[in-house]
Amino acid sequence: MDWDQLDLNPRIIASVRRVKLKCVREALCVSGPDLQRLTGLSRSDVHQLQTAAATACRRHPPTPAVLLQRGYSGLRLSVGCPVLDQLLRGGLPAGGVTELSGESGAGKTQLALQLCLSVQYPAQHGGLDSGAVYICTEDQFPVRRLDQLIRGQASLRRDVPAALISSRRFSDHVYVEHAADLDSLSVCLSRRVPLLLARQHVRLLVVDSVAALFRSEFQASDWLERSQQLISFSHTLHTLSLEFNTPVLCINQVTDVFSSDDSLGPVSGAVAPALGLVWANQVMVRLMMRRLQETVARGDQSSILRRLEVVFAPHLSRDGRDAAVWREGVLGLDSANNTRTGVL
To answer: Name one GO biological process term (predicted).
Structure first.
């Protein structure tokens, strides 16, 4: 939405254009005091500006809401675990961006790899009968762990006929891309990923992680440019998701928080997803994965206990499930076969 569509004094509009606030929604990504310093406007002018922008944005909802109203199909991609699928009402939604955040070692990449295999099953088994494209922005792709998960599919997916699993060449349908900076990420999302989607080679897009590049390429003083880049990046993801009816999963890092009253933060814990409100307003579903201070055992295996939580989603309750990472994958805990062995 353009500034000319707002009922504002031309002097105010000229001020925001002078500092390169390109669209109305960007005014809501900046605090009032920062807008005053940036534009030179008075406190009263900034209040008028943000009130007009908020009113306009309510009339023209942001991308996630538009997806729900116009393009949200209700299609789900199974996580490959009945307990976690129950939490997510069937799995990850197509036609929207899902964020999975958590501290290092929480199990985010484990769950993303599991989804890269789950997507390859036919629809009757919770998949989309296609492959996945996995964009790495910081670490090398975990090939060995993917191979281990592939070998464990018969044990993980007992709901799928063994003959169907053995006939699949899972590794051939996971396309790996590496993006070391925002320019290479942009090229990947604008050229290679649309080609894979258009040719129906993939039906899942994973970005691991979204925070790595945006944290490393911008200084604190570059907050406006970073906000604009984040909005542009999220618009690209939403466009791809909506056009190809494809789930998009963005893995995010976390940052320490000093208050527990943030409604966009986790259910519990002292961390919150990175990149702030600008990014939070661009995702449709926010999930968080945490490590707990307990271990759990099953047979000859043991695992640190995890918890997958729904932070916000238009179709989900704010809830969570305990889970563990086994050799064959990530599973929610729901049976007496899992024994908690103590506090770490």
So the answer is: double-strand break repair via synthesis-dependent strand annealing
Dist CA 314 CA 68 (whole Å): 9
Measured CA distances, 62 to 25, 140, 280 (Å):
9, 34, 12
Element (H, E) at 181: none
Q: How far apart are CA 265 and CA 316, in angstroms?
A: 15
- Residue boundaries of the structural domains of the chain: 3-59, 63-288
* Cα separations in angstroms, 332 against 82, 159, 250, 306: 8, 15, 21, 9
| CA distance readout (Å), 96 to 184, 218, 227, 258, 316 | 23, 26, 20, 30, 14
User: What is the CATH number assigned to the segment(s) 3-59?
Assistant: 1.10.150
CB 137 within 8 A of CB 185: yes
Averaged confidence pLDDT in the chain: 85
pLDDT, one tens digit per residue, over 40-77 is 888 888 888 877 776 665 455 444 444 444 445 578 99
Question: What is the rounded end-to-end Cα distance, in angstroms, of the chain?
Answer: 52
At position 325, the amino acid (one-letter code) is V
- What is the rounded CA–CA span in Å between residue 143 and residue 140? 9
Gyration radius of the chain's alpha carbons = 21
* Cα(216)–Cα(200) distance, integer angstroms: 33
Taking alpha carbons only, the member of 58, 17, 24 closest to residue 41 is 17
pLDDT bin (cut points 50, 70, 90) of residue 131 is very high
Indicate whether this model's pTM tops 0.85.
Answer: no
**Alpha-carbon distance 170 to 148, whole Å?**
12
Confidence of residue 257 (pLDDT cuts 50, 70, 90): low
CATH architecture designation of domain 63-288: 3-Layer(aba) Sandwich (3.40)
